[in-house]
Amino acid sequence: MDTQNPTHRQSDGDQKYFLIRGYSFDLYWGYNEDMKTRVMIILFGVFLAACVPLAAQTPQSYLTVFGGIHHHQVAGTVEEYVFGENDFPVIPAHNGYLLGFSYLGAIGKRIGLEIDARYIGPANVDLEDPSDGDTIGVKAGPHAPLTANFLFLPLPGKIRPYLVAGGGVDIFLGKGGTYTSRYGYEIEIPKPTSKERFDAEAHLGAGAFIAIGEKWGVRLDSRYLWIFDDGDMIGGISLAAGLYLSL
Q1: Per-residue confidence at 101, pLDDT binned at 50, 70, 90?
Q2: pLDDT confidence tier of residue 10, bands split at 50, 70 and 90
Q3: What are the Cα distances from residue 186, in Å, to 13, 17, 174?
Q4: Residue 137 vs residues 26, 45, 123, 140: alpha-carbon distances, Å
Q5: What are the extents of the domains in the chain?
Q6: Pair type for strands 159-172 and 60-72
Q7: Is the Cα dihedral 12, 13, 18, 20 positive or negative?
Q8: Quick check: 56 pLDDT over 70?
Q9: Tens digit of each residue's pLDDT (9 = 90 or more) over 165-203
């Protein structure tokens, strides 16, 4: 991703710079935009392909609402520190709450196609300048993944475990802001452009539908995901539980 250079000011006339790198902030752009566009087109095609059988097939379907937690793994490394360009290279691991809903259409007895929309809330994180120990407290996120998924449900019955694989787009919803570091530097993070808000996402996971009544029950879901940001794959883990209605 092409970097939007933040504006930095300090009262004594010196300046300190950083690039917020990672999908929590989505402000550091600089990898092949053609490659990113191709990935987004492919994933959008998968999304549309999933919508067709969802409307056409009616063996069984599940509507789920859920909540949980998403763990963002560390993004960036100390080795990426560049004085005057990337003074705060590492975004530490942090957690955000998760809310969402999904619609699953079963195709036959063991295969399902799902549309899934999630909202992952913001979290406060501290970034550190490895050269002098200066820190700033900033807000990461929020963001909203929208994905199309394939589910494999091998067993019938009241407890239906499944494997899930899919992908889509992760939409950054955060705004810009101005922050002051511990050493008194004032750092302005610009609001990202519309193009900078979108990253490709892919994930694998497992879960289970647990029937309680004839038409409803509990769903448990776990996923490991990758965000394709600046040519890197940034990982995360989502754990969710919710209620489903069988339609």
Answers
A1: very high
A2: very low
A3: 11, 10, 19
A4: 17, 39, 10, 10
A5: 7-246
A6: unpaired
A7: positive
A8: no
A9: 999 999 999 887 888 889 988 887 778 888 888 999 999
Residue at token pair 């519309």: 194
- pLDDT of 87: 81
Q: Closest Cα partner for 199 from 234, 175, 238?
A: 234
Dist CA 103 CA 164 (whole Å) = 14
Q: Of 118, 126, 223, 240, give the one whose Cα is nearest residue 179.
A: 126
Tell me the mean pLDDT in the region 5-14: 39
Residues whose CB falls within 8 Å of the CB of residue 221, separated by 6 or more in sequence, listed in order = 66, 68, 164, 205, 207, 238, 239, 240, 241, 242
Domain covering 7-246 in this structure, CATH number: 2.40.160.20
CA gap 152, 204 in Å, rounded: 12
The whole-angstrom separation of Cα 83 and Cα 63 is 51
Rounded average pLDDT over 208-219: 95
Q: Check if the beta carbon of residue 93 is closer than 8 Å to that of residue 52.
A: no
Cα torsion through 142, 24, 49, 38, rounded to 10: 140
